[in-house]
Amino acid sequence: SVFSGTSQQNLSYKVIFDTKEPELSIKSSGNDIEFNNNEVYFKDGQNIEASLTDENINEDSRSINVYKDGNLIQSSKDDLVNFDALDEGCYTVEARAEDYAENEVNRTYKIYIDEHDPEINLQGVYDGAKFKKGENETPTAVIKVSDTNFKNAEAVITRKSKDEELQTQNIVLN
């Protein structure tokens, strides 16, 4: 043999093709949370679980930070973080991780706990109010909605007079 007297070495390499970013999962009571524009609202406190996983994750890159009303309440490099969002307020979950193929996830989610119903105040009219022609022909209704996490509301105003049909008007408050 031409190669006599020399040592021969077999080398094997494992090549991994990884095109997926690390997976971020946020759950409440074991169920995935469905976020709308990275936000979700709950009426009651929740036990939250956030996890960042990937077969090839760079452990040094992983971080999950949890804030309540802007104040850091938990920070972790672990793959799983549990926290109680029990008190009313805005909880922000910031999660970041990268795998060895440089696929990255970097997300921010807001979880609102809002235990109070909105307050609605109607001024200027009352249910069943009657107005005489010539006296305050155009009453003004003032609708005030107050809520810590107000998104929108809808008001339905119905008017009926002796001369006219029933008229209904929908108003969206933002």
Radius of gyration in whole Å, from Cα?
Answer: 30 Å
Oligomeric state of this protein: single chain
Order of helices and strands: EEEEEEEEEEEEE
Report the sheet-strand fraction. over 45%
Q: What spatial form do the alpha-carbon principal axes imply?
A: elongated
Q: Number of helical segments?
A: 0
Classify the helix fraction into a percent range. under 10%
Arithmetic mean pLDDT: 83
Intertermini distance: 87 Å
Q: How would a crystallographer describe the biggest sheet?
A: 5 strands, mixed
Q: How many β-strand runs?
A: 13
Q: Low-confidence segments, ≥5 residues, pLDDT <50?
A: none
Strand order of the largest sheet: 3-9-8-5-6
Structural class: mainly beta
Note down, in words, how this protein is organized.
With 174 residues, this protein is mostly beta strands. Helix content is 0%, strand content 47%. It is built from no helices and 13 strands. It has strands at 23-28, 31-32, 39-42, 46-53, 63-68, 71-76, 80-85, 89-98, 104-113, 119-123, 142-146, 153-159, 167-173. The strands form 4 sheets. Strands 3-9-8-5-6 form a 5-stranded mixed sheet, with no helix packed on it. Strand 8 (89-98) and strand 9 form a beta hairpin.
